[in-house]
Amino acid sequence: MAFLFLFLSCAIGFGQFVNLNESDFSKADSIAFSYKGHSLKNPPLLTYELTKDLTTDVEKFRAIFTWVCTNIENDYQSYLKTRKKRKKIQKDRARFLAWNESFTPKVFEKLVAEKRTACTGYAYLIKEMANLAGFQSEIVNGYGRTPTLLLEENDPPNHSWNTVKLDGKWYLCDATWSAGRIMLDDSGPRFEPDYDDVYFLPNPELFTKNHYPLELELSLLEELPSLTDFIVAPVIYKEAFRFGIAPILPEKMHLEVLRDVNTSFELKIPEGLDVKKFRLALNKGGKDVEVQPKITLLKPGKIRMEYTFNRTGLYDAHIVFDGDKIATYVVKVRRN
Predict the structure, then answer these.
(1) CB 258: neighbour CB atoms within 10 A?
(2) pLDDT below 50 — which residues of the chain?
């Protein structure tokens, strides 16, 4: 097993990322949008049309990614069926992986016919089209965690995404979460398309704040926290990816602090980010109230935010940058 892990680590290597703020994908996106509504019945031809006029691996894959995210609907009913099956076999890791491998072609049949699928289908389609374009790609199965999708220790794996090798380097991506979101309202679950490219070749360190793979080498990181640490960590929002901001400390989402004593939060940020735009938004069972924490630059790329709670109670404490939520902690303030 040790040899196998070493081989996989060497084969995958450590992950890279693309800075979206410094990249121009307008040509690749334009090509993808020009094929909106195109049939999936001939994937080799579609992949060729999407990539033939682009020069770099990253641009070609971008056209594939954008097309998938803007043409495939997230099917909540398929997600529920997949989740039910995963729950049944979650304790048998080998059986789970074997089932997942045999399951994905069946998902693809429905995907071709209806252009609707769950995360497994998105990941399978990305892998197939990447392979057709000449790129290595793997489906990654594991756990996804969002502010509305929290996990417990015994929960089954609930999500799938991809690795892809471009220009000799490995990257991560999640087409499902980039495509849009599932809205749960009185009329039942419905997919709301809202393409957002923050999960296109993101920083692996930030990506593993809300994606935890079953096969740890597919994190593309040298070290990964335990699954338990992942589950109890603060939740992050997609805007954390947009600005490249990662919470470091405290490591747990649920905190217990003393009234009138400083509480601190440490963040990793891109150098040059305007730290004056950071705020804390506190919610104690009502609406969010923004407060100004004390901000200290610890070193380039790392800051500390400090705030003193002067009333007891239970707070949702949101870290906010330029009006957007980045991460959330739950803070219980008690008397000292």
Answers:
(1) 14
(2) 1-12
